[in-house]
Amino acid sequence: MSFALETLTVPAAIQTDSAKSLAIPARVRDPRLDVVRGIALFIIFIAHVPSNWLWSVIPARFGLSDATDSFVFISGIASAIAFGGTFLRHGFWTGAGRIAYRCAQLGVAHLFLLFAIIAVAYQGSVWTGRDLVGALGVGHLLASPAQAIFEAFWLHWVPASLDIMPVYIVLLAMVPGMMLLEKLDRRLPLVVSLALYLANAAYGLDPIADSSTGRHWLLNPFAWQVIFFLGFAFKRGWLPVPPRSATLTVLAWGMVAVGVIYRVLPDGLGLGDAALWHALGGQLDKTNLDPFRLAHFLATAYLLHGLLIARPGIAKARILRPFEHLGQQGLSVFVGGMIVANVAGLIILKVGDGPLGQIIINLGGFLTLYGIARVMGWYKSAPWSGKKA
């Protein structure tokens, strides 16, 4: 499980003239980030559709990490681009105010998504005669609606599988503090991030997602912040991007191979002690971003970065342009994708998960997400603000 939901941009050539040093540089979009984020969004859609055949071929089936890691990492990069400069150009309070505004926007989007999915489930229950609302795990809302709604506003009630956006809200809320630490020493934010990650591993800082059952968040923000701020750090220059080297490449491929062997080959097919493979499985804690999972993601990110550096034209390939559009409208596509995934589940209940149902949910789902991206792009361009043709 983004979550960079702001415009992805990269600075143009830096002006060296002292008279222009304070000018805000023109910025252009980086298609690589948009494409990767768009692909991650579609994979997240696939993963949330029940009985989807494509679920068996997404990257998570062949490794120790998945699209969630990519999304959160890219969110860190994009947040550094979208918000980092605001703190430097306009000061701390303006930057913090912009972060607060964005968190409020995401909070509204989260509440809309929550109640939209409940509405879809209710209508689906009417159509199918099954209790789809109960299957969502929203018993707290049904038993104590006023309390649940109050807690939902403060992210103290987060239904299962709907905590991606709340996690992003928490991570964004940490940015002002990290920017203050940057003023003291650019290494401090990463030190604090790592310390928080280790403190969570030692003391269990995961927040409550449902006060009625004691259930915790599916994704613990105090663990996942480390991957978010790694992306943030690379973009802000707190941490240098690892250079391309044969040694790092071999190590990265080795980590990828471990993931493939673990996922594809039962007990490693005799490659070492089977107990070691079972022990590895016991360590793959997604909620708290297990170190093996983090290492696997960083290995795949390193290899992908090297590929995009060596072949920059890949991200501009025509076949990937639809994914670029998806990545440009991250928030809208994510919210729409989660709703469409639930509608797709209803379609499967009606027509089955045979070839026809799979074509409808996957092709139709992708076209719907692409349509959402293009429509939102049109709205954001504000064509009504220009001169009349």
TrEMBL record:
Pfam families: OpgC_C
Protein name: OpgC domain-containing protein
Membrane-traversing stretches: 35-58, 70-88, 100-122, 164-181, 188-205, 217-234, 246-265, 292-310, 331-349, 355-373
InterPro entries xrefs: UCP028704_OpgC
Keyword field: Membrane, Transmembrane, Transmembrane helix
Organism of provenance: Elstera cyanobacteriorum
Superkingdom field: Bacteria
Keyword Transmembrane annotated: yes
